[in-house]
Amino acid sequence: MPQFVESSDGKTFPLYSPTSQEVVAEVCEASEKDTDDAVAAAKAAFPAWSALSPTDRGKYMKKLAALLKESHKEMAWLEAMSMGRPVSTYFDAFAAAEQYEHYSEVGYDAQGTSSLNTPGFVNMTFRQPYGVVAAIIPWNVPALFFAKKSAPALAAGNTVIVKSSEKAPLTSAYISRLIEKAGFPPGVFNVLSGHGNISGAILSSHMDVRALSFTGSCRTGKLIQAAAAKSNLKSVILELGGKSPAIVFDDADLDAAVEETQNSVQWNSGQVCMANSRLYVHSKVADKFVEAFKARFAKIKPGDPTDPNTNHGPQADKVQFENVQKYIELGRQAGELVLGDQALEVNGNAKGFFVPPTVFLKTAEGERVMKEEIFGPVVHINTFETEEEVIKKANDTEFGLYASVYTKNIDRAMRFAKALDSGTVGINCTSPTGARDMPFGGYKQSGTGREGHRVSLDNFLETKTVLIKIAAA
Ligand code: NAD
User: Fold this and answer.
1) Is 447 close to ligand 1, i.e. is its CB under 6 Å away?
2) Where exactly does CATH 3.40.309.10 map onto the chain?
3) Would you say the CB of residue 273 lies under 6 angstroms from ligand 1?
4) Segment 299-304 mean pLDDT
5) Ligand 1, residues 15, 137, 165: which to mutate, most atoms within 8 A of Cβ?
6) Is 0.90 surpassed by the pTM of this model?
7) For the Aldehyde dehydrogenase domain, which residue ranges apply (predicted)?
8) Which one of 29, 239, 260, 373 is the catalytic residue?
9) Residues 368, 380 contacting (CB under 8 angstroms)
10) For residue 377, what pLDDT is reported?
11) Please, are residues 361 and 254 in contact by the beta-carbon 8 Å criterion?
12) Is 53 helix (H, G, I), strand (E, B) or coil?
């Protein structure tokens, strides 16, 4: 049976509620030794795990999926306590369960090809697991990222180490108990809690970790890529940040565009990689759009995230809060603040790191607030006249995760689908709309590689060519 162990050097770190600002847990900080031990355990477990049939590996994942579904309430509460996510918006335990259910069935898709095209040979490819692989996850939707990475890695026959985020380690620690209950063999599925330094950095440069899937900031992604290059050139998949544009034409369904773009930048208090934080609205409908957007955005229900009536929690911690404040200050200098100047009335007088819905108009395109990820309920709305102009503006960032266009004109929609530099383009929809069987990932500095039901297995499989020479008769 897998086992929960405390940090070998006894170190812990305090976790503060972003609502009450009180310590809600003392969390074990994985030391260098703990990280090395986890890798060694995973390495020892690999031969037996990879020798199982996909059906037998899947049995453990099916059990884990069932346990996750039963744990929805507890996990929602833990996330509310650690990073302020309102329980009313929590779906992650079910979404994580769906990942394990799916990957419990698809291990048989790990298949190579064969070729008779070389005379005198039968050639083929094998798809084989890497061995020990690692996942480093962020704090904003932790349980989903936990599952999205570990499920395909396990299905492919790898053994896995997941490192949780120091800002939201509680659901990952909870899942480690479920892994134990599901009966995974020791060493197959390991969970570490701790900061980027020490455990994250060690995993990134570990010689025995052969693939690493990361979701988080661009800055950390680059550090991980560099550590991989300097150590064993492990295969690295990076899902990074965004500065997603949504473009609204004058022929669009304006009500739908308002509702969806507002939800995109408010959900999870704007702490979403693909949130449409830049809106470009055609000048003919801009006034109407802005009024309706402001009215909707102002109607949020901020409060204690454990209260089922709350739909807007605090920012995840003090650092995130101060970062958003810094960008709001920059925004004031660069554009016109039309929503967010009033202090937020928070239900039940909950204190904490709350940021009001904030809207800026007429911000100059070159400003930092138009280029950098803010990760808060802050949106910049600018106007445009022509297609050419707005495509140029929308593409003028180093990010490229998700872009949207609202229009009834199919030809225009297709022109935009082609022209936008983005891993996903939504037509008459915006983030967080997604599709499980479509690849998700970024152009430019939003990342490398893709995730999704039809592609993630591939991220955790090596390809081997086998050449078989046939003697002449
Ligand atoms: P972060 O980069 O600060 O931290 C992410 C993880 O990396 C944490 O577990 C952290 O401990 C670890 N880490 C930090 N330094 C490290 C190092 N030197 N080596 C190895 N690991 C290290 O990001 P965050 O603040 O947790 O998450 C927010 C970011 O994640 C945003 O930029 C957001 O856009 C991005 N994100 C992207 C996606 C996507 O699918 N593209 C999804 C969600 C979030």
Assistant:
1) yes
2) 245-427
3) yes
4) 94
5) 165
6) yes
7) 4-466
8) 239
9) no
10) 98
11) no
12) coil
